[in-house]
Amino acid sequence: xxxxxxxxxxxxRLNWKRLGESLxxxxxxxxxxxxxxxxxxxxxxxxREEMVRDQVNPFTCxxxxxxxxxxxxxxxxxxxxxxxxxxxxxxxxxxxxxDWWSEAEAGFTPGQRSHAWAGLDKLHFYQTxxxxxxxxxxxxxxxxxxxxxWWRLPYEGGEPVAAYQDVVAAELNRVDRDSTSRLGxxxxxxxxxxxxxxxxxxxxxxxxxxxxxxxxxxxLTLHDVTAVPFHADLKAAERARRAFLVLRRGFGxxxxxxxxxxxxxxRWVPADGPIGCVEAAFVTRADAEAxxxxxxxxxxxxLNPFRIDAPSRVxxxxxxxxxxxxAGEGVSTDxxxxxxWSTADGPWIGWWDRAAGGMNxxxxxxxxxCLDKLxxxxxxxxxxxx
Length: 386
Known about the structure:
By secondary structure, the chain is α+β, with helices and mostly antiparallel strands. The chain contains 13 helices and 13 strands.
């Protein structure tokens, strides 16, 4: 039976991942705490934000000024100078600014530190959202794939396989599926390598420690249950026999999900197929598709699509075709060499970092519209079993 919830306010950790010595933000967020009062949630969000700011060098959190601030380098230089700080020259490059922050931050006064972070207004680590007053749907997901005697867990999230309006029924289904899945596993196989990918994908980069995998086939959870808002009134929810889920595509660390030779530099790569984190449920596909595209556009401003994969793997256009579209929108491609079109670590990465800040909203949308092979959010249909 569907249960109506009251509106609440949720503090979420934005989906930052470690990438070598830097941090990269991917789509989505992880719920941390829930409050009935918006003021309490905002206070908790900023408490956590300040804790992370004590740990993080902001100039490790983006490859260009565009990702960090509404200011370009000269205006950020002036902003910091106004507080009595002595930053590097505006044209010094982010690596020089990163080193400056590491050396100088210990000498900042509280007021200078607050002023500096205020100038880095695009850079956040937590957010507060309102969870609507609607029923919950409990989604059962398989967390990995069976490969003979092994079960690999390389990505965040899993593949949705069933949904329930009753949480007890969902948990019973999860336990049953786990028991069935374990029958094919090697009892003596140690799964550290196989589920270290999921540990890396879901760890909190600000927690100060990493997960140490230790589960064995007998106690390893191979399925989980996620409660998500079911955007329907109570009567419609009770009548529904199928749900359309908005699924955030799961990412995994490249060295744990693919041959390392495929990627010369560290990167996070999306899962193939409907594997990821369920974020919402709807009664109709049209409503789910609209929400998926809304979230897609919300994620695009802080992503470099060419850090996800080679240009030839994210668009069905030829190199000449995408250059023509960009030229028609008045966007210069700086003529990256042709051999970079099929290279995951090629020059289109640097082109995007340089060019994105100078694009207007319509130009960025046009570029992303060309990347028709790259979806950050999918819609998945599942039966509602109870």
